[in-house]
Amino acid sequence: MASNRFNYGARGFTLLESMVALAIVALGMMAVHTQLNRFVISAVITEEKTLASWIASNKLTELSVATTWPEVGTSDDEVEFAQRDWQLEIEISETQVENLRRADVRVFLSQDPDRLIHTLSALIEPPPPAGFLPVRWFSAEIGAGG
């Protein structure tokens, strides 16, 4: 008796089952791709906001330690930071307190000046008068370890 080369009793996947499985895998991969894309966009936005907050904080620190009190009004500045060009809009305004001015710093990327990335505000007091010596909070004995 001749042996049969094909084992008709063994079952594999049909073409239809394979196509359904492939469609399910494709949908899963599309979902993974979408989530990775969202993650990348989120990471870029977070990086921009972090860098912009550092830039605004640096500018407010410069204004607060300057030897002259900033004039009331609006000015612009450009900064290169983290290999990018940034634009700053600085607005100095009067407050109800005589010896305080409000400083608002808005940060934009130079390539997209219509998109505000970060805003930071602070109150600035006038610089100390010439010859003013800062207060020493620690005595020489304490600072010397005694």
> Can you tell me the residue ranges where pLDDT is under 50 for at least 5 consecutive residues?
none
The secondary structure category is: alpha+beta
Principal-axis shape: elongated
Encode the helix/strand succession as letters: HEEEEH
Distance between the termini: 109 Å
Strand content: 25-35%
Q: From the alpha-carbon coordinates, what is the Rg to the nearest angstrom?
A: 32 Å
What's the pLDDT, averaged over the residues?
A: 89
> Can you list the strand order of the major beta sheet?
1-2-3-4
SS element count, helices: 2
Main sheet, how many strands, which sense, barrel? 4 strands, antiparallel
In helices, the fraction of residues equals 25-40%
What's the count of strands? 4
Helix and strand layout, with pairings?
Layout: H1 15-65, E1 73-81, E2 84-94, E3 101-109, E4 112-124, H2 140-143
Antiparallel strand pairs: 1-2, 2-3, 3-4
Q: Brief overview, please?
A:
This protein is of the alpha+beta class.
Describe the structure using short key phrases.
146 residues; alpha+beta; 4-stranded antiparallel beta sheet; 2 helices; 29% strand
Description:
The structure is a single chain. This protein has 146 residues and is an alpha+beta fold. The chain is built from two helices and four strands. It has a four-stranded antiparallel sheet with strand order 1-2-3-4, with helices on one face. β3 and β4 form a beta hairpin. The N and C termini lie far apart (109 Å).
